[in-house]
Design goal:
Blueprint: H1 4-70, E1 75-80, E2 85-93, E3 98-112, H2 114-120, E4 134-147, E5 154-165, E6 171-183, H3 189-204, H4 210-221, E7 223-224, E8 229-230, E9 234-241, H5 246-258, H6 260-271, H7 278-297, H8 300-307, H9 313-316, H10 337-346
Antiparallel strand pairs: 1-2, 2-3, 3-4, 4-5, 5-6, 6-9, 7-8
Helix pairs in contact: 1-5, 1-6, 3-6
Pfam family, one: Coprogen_oxidas
InterPro entries: Coprogen_oxidase_aer, Coprogen_oxidase_aer_sf, Coprogen_oxidase_CS
Organism: Cetraspora pellucida
Length: 352
């Protein structure tokens, strides 16, 4: 028969063992969480590298194809950013087909200034400007092509990956953004349909809501409020896309980037040798003026670039055409081809 004192010692021993088991379990859980977090950081770091490799590969493919169409070589300008990172700007000017074409990539890092944080604050509540500046990483590709022929449309494409870091280097916030849009001087409905159909097919492979949502976003974003008209016939646009695992969104971005040549090259080949008049060339220059107005007044990317320390101004303004025109109170003749374009710019169509 055991004594009460023996029972007490047994109970104390059991309690100590249970406590030890609990402490060990907590320690194991903490190690597991730490490993998962470390793996997440490694995944994000790997994604950075893969995005960098992808945009470099896409740049090379697009430059090669456009050179084959134009017959002139791109100027390849490799540069480094003092605050961190580098870029490769590929620019073709005064070619046979293109007045100006740019295919730029940048992979940069550093500290995000207060002005840039304030612009992002409405979309990223976790960013407190008073606690900045924040370390950041960004990798992206930006393309603009302005053909000589007024019947061949201008195109813009941009895809980017962005991270804001915590002190330990893990992402505080991350997202993808970008899109592609078409800006014709003369409306060819079959061109607009082909362009939108190609983008829709790319979107539909990943989410049936992407195309209608991003098409609407594009119509609203590329809009000159002071003129009450769209910049062009639209396309897709998205920003701050982080509502799915990063790998899934990365695959979507690659799908869209890979669709660039298919969406645009057939249109250029179809229109680049079309006969045009001096009046049609003047109209193209007026529409180019609207392009400049949007980029300098409304475009968030331009504003962000100008506010980021160490920005490369030549690369930011690569998107602007070589020539443009502003006429006082210019109004196209009613029912003319120019007027037909204006009606679409004031009332966007659903092309597919």
């Amino acid at each position: 028969m055991t004594s009460p004192l023996s029972n007490l010692f047994v109970q104390i021993s059991i309690n100590f063992q249970l406590r030890a088991y609990k402490m060990q379990a907590l320690e194991n859980d903490a190690k597991k969480v730490a490993r998962l977090r470390e793996n997440d950081v490694k995944k994000e770091t790997l994604l950075r590298k893969r995005m960098e490799q992808y945009i470099k590969s896409l740049q090379e493919r697009i430059v090669k194809e456009i050179e084959s169409i134009d017959g002139k070589k791109f100027l390849i300008d490799r540069w480094e950013r003092e605050q961190g990172g580098y870029g490769i700007s590929c620019v073709l000017q005064d070619g046979k087909v293109f007045e100006k074409a740019g295919v730029n990539i940048s992979v940069v890092s550093g500290e995000l200034p207060t002005l840039a944080i304030q612009q992002m604050k409405s979309r990223h509540k976790e960013l407190d400007p008073s606690k900045g500046p924040f370390p950041f990483f960004a990798a992206g590709i930006s393309i603009v092509m302005h053909p000589h022929n007024p019947h061949a449309p201008t195109i813009h494409m941009n895809y980017r990956y962005f991270e804001i870091e915590k002190e330990d280097g893990s992402p505080l916030s991350w997202w993808f953004g970008g899109g592609s849009d078409l800006t014709p001087s003369y409306l060819y409905e079959d061109d607009a349909i082909h362009f939108h159909k190609t983008l829709k097919e790319a979107c539909d492979k990943h989410d049936p809501n992407y195309y209608p949502d991003f098409k609407k976003w594009c119509d609203e974003y590329f809009y000159l409020k002071h003129r009450k008209e769209a910049r062009g016939v639209g396309g897709i646009f998205f920003d701050d896309l982080d509502n799915k695992p990063p790998e899934k969104i990365f695959e979507f971005v690659k799908q869209c980037g890979d669709s660039f040549l298919e969406s645009y090259v057939p249109l250029v080949k179809r229109r680049m040798n079309t006969t045009f008049t001096a009046n049609e060339k003047e109209w193209q220059q007026i529409r180019r003026g609207r392009y400049v107005e949007f980029n300098l007044v409304w475009d968030r990317g331009t504003k962000f670039g100008l506010q980021t320390p160490g920005s490369r101004i030549e690369s930011i303004f690569m998107s602007l055409p070589l020539t443009a025109r502003w006429e006082y109170m210019h109004v196209p003749d009613k029912n003319s081809r120019e007027d037909k374009l204006m009606q679409v710019l004031k009332h966007p169509n659903n092309w597919v």
